Amino acid sequence: MLLQVVGRWRTGDDVFGSGQHEAQPLGLVPTHPPHSSNTTTIEGPLFSVQLTRLLDDGGIVLGVSVHHILMDVQGLCTVLGAWAAGVRGKDPLPRLVGGGDQAESGMIRTLLLCGTADKTAAVESEASSIFTQGPPLTGGPPPSFSLPRMQLIQLVLPSAAIDRFRGDADFLSSNSIISALLWSAVCRARGISDDVETSLAFVVDGRRRISPPLPPEYLGNAAFYGMAHGTGVGSRCVEELARLVHYAVAAATQSASLRATLRWIEAQPRKDTLHNPFVTAFLGKNVAISNWSSLPLADIDFGTGGPFAWDLPRSPLAMDGIAIILPASPAVAAWRGALTVYLGLMCDHADQFLRDERVREFVVEG
Known about the structure:
Structural class: alpha+beta
Mean pLDDT: 81
Strand content: 15-25%
Shape: globular
Order of helices and strands: EHEEHHHEEHHEEHHEHEEHEEH
Largest sheet: 6 strands, mixed
Number of strands: 12
Number of helices: 11
Strand order of the largest sheet: 5-12-11-9-6-7
């Protein structure tokens, strides 16, 4: 995560690098050895911060890197908000433990496990079709394996454009619209025929959805996975696909479903061999999307009234078939109220994606 807390925001490859699968020129995010998904072989820091001062205009960029085993992105925003409150002379503790009693503290990571200890409960869950079994993941590909070149594409979608795709289906969220748009366009870019079933994987924040609910300040991982499936995705209209996504999200966010997922994972003897759908989307036929558009980035105030801008590091995001949705940075006036999308694709597929008439108008050049 990149936050510019002071100074004039600069855009372009001179600050963030290109969307290619290469290192960033200015190294605004802390670097350390790649992490392993296996919790017994973690190397390097779990949480890193780098402060970079841009000498030409006095700007300050805060680069933050966190291992997912420590917390999800909502937890990261909670930590950054507490830190910012401390810098302003406020007590950061309420932002970490909430306003309730000790039992509701977001610092108690075992809250998510409440209700999973009943060994007599059924462990059947949709998770059995969402997670796949495979060898334990390591911090990188085998030495003999060469990754294809990948490109990161940035799109900005104004609210008016999202409404245009929504049509009369007012119940469809921006998340469902954007997910459907990307899913369809990626299938076309990859040349997937209509008779092939593909899947859209997504992440939901379980804090408010699970029962009993978690405190908003919960600092662990409360990210749950869901999937939508379909054939002919590249040929179907956005509204039709958005309805499919909408109902898949609704099913995945039921509290009973979330608890069943926890019980199913707990029952697995080798959790290090469980591959989430984001792993299987990489270099495959599926698409995986994580929506961060509701993150309170504008409220992370280090004494300047909130960040002048935010962004994500380019190179690590250039992962084929994986997309992240963010609120568009306030640094660009024309983007106010819009949502921005970062999508990684193999370069050959990226070329096709950029020619697609349905998405071409939203692509950020450069």
